[in-house]
Amino acid sequence: MNIILLGPPGAGKGTQASRLVSERGMVQLSTGDMLRAAVKAGTPVGLKAKAVMDAGELVSDEIVSALIGEALDKLPPETGVIFDGYPRTAAQAESLDAILAERNRTLDHVIELEVNEDALVERITGRFTCANCGEGYHDSFKQPKVEGTCDVCGGTEFKRRPDDNAETVRTRMAEYRAKTAPILPIYEARSLVSRVDGMADIADVNAAIEGILGAR
Ligand code: ADP
Ligand code: ADP
Ligand code: ZN
């Protein structure tokens, strides 16, 4: 099964993907995570992407589609994939069709997380992750069970993203509205889209997604 999680920054794509990974053994492919790894490693892609990401704008379609193709090639063909944060433009949606077809994969669901824009700023400015395993947390909505200790790996160091500030969030939301939301009709025409209330509690959003994906 191959699915896309679609929604504006802070909608909960990463949070839900991580639950599907542990519950269903699917693999999460996040272009944001891949780009941050490239920036950290100082690769040519990372050097190109850094300023664009810091400004909250979109990295080029060619770069992100190449990252997705390479990542898929490292997976066994039967592994289910969650595309998180990709595609973000019509050109990327078109590339994804080709990338999947070349690998005999089909797209099964596009799940849109619907959220109120005012909530996104609060979600993003309160977001932090475990520096060791990447598990996502929130100052108000998802604190570690033991303060200062990651629930998943026991790590005690956490980090925040440089682009998770109120100014950049506005640009990222505008990019979503202008370039990403318009790809939904492409998938609607293929009857692939399901909508989920992303304002519900994390567990309820997860249950709604599980209902859409059906039996394991
Ligand atoms: P969020 O979780 O807030 O939606 P991501 O981690 O997915 O953000 O992305 C962070 C940044 O990385 C984006 O603002 C953009 O600069 C870049 N990026 C990630 N994925 C893509 C993509 N598919 N196309 C273009 N740029 C991307
Ligand atoms: P995205 O990957 O779409 O950018 P994240 O999954 O990183 O979004 O979620 C953004 C922040 O909001 C994180 O700090 C996360 O813990 C929190 N969060 C995610 N889903 C919910 C929810 N349903 N209710 C409240 N907070 C949430
Ligand atoms: Zn951890």
What features would you describe in this structure?
Helices cover 47% and strands 15% of the residues. By secondary structure, it is an alpha/beta fold. Helix 2 packs across helix 3 (44-55) and helix 4 runs parallel beside helix 5. The relative contact order is 0.19. The mean pLDDT is 96. Bound molecules: adenosine-5'-diphosphate (2 copies) and zinc ion (ZN).
Annotate the secondary structure layout:
Blueprint: E1 2-6, H1 13-24, E2 27-30, H2 31-41, H3 44-55, H4 61-73, E3 81-84, H5 90-102, E4 109-114, H6 117-125, E5 127-130, E6 136-138, E7 158-159, H7 166-180, H8 184-188, E8 193-197, H9 202-213
Parallel strand pairs: 1-3, 1-4, 2-3, 4-8
Antiparallel strand pairs: 5-6, 5-7
Helix pairs in contact: 1-9, 2-3, 4-5, 6-7
The protein binds adenosine-5'-diphosphate (ADP) (2 copies) and zinc ion.
Zinc ion binds at residues 130, 132-133, 135, 150, 152-153, 155.
Offer a few descriptive terms:
216 residues; five-stranded parallel sheet; 9 helices; 47% helix; globular; binds zinc ion
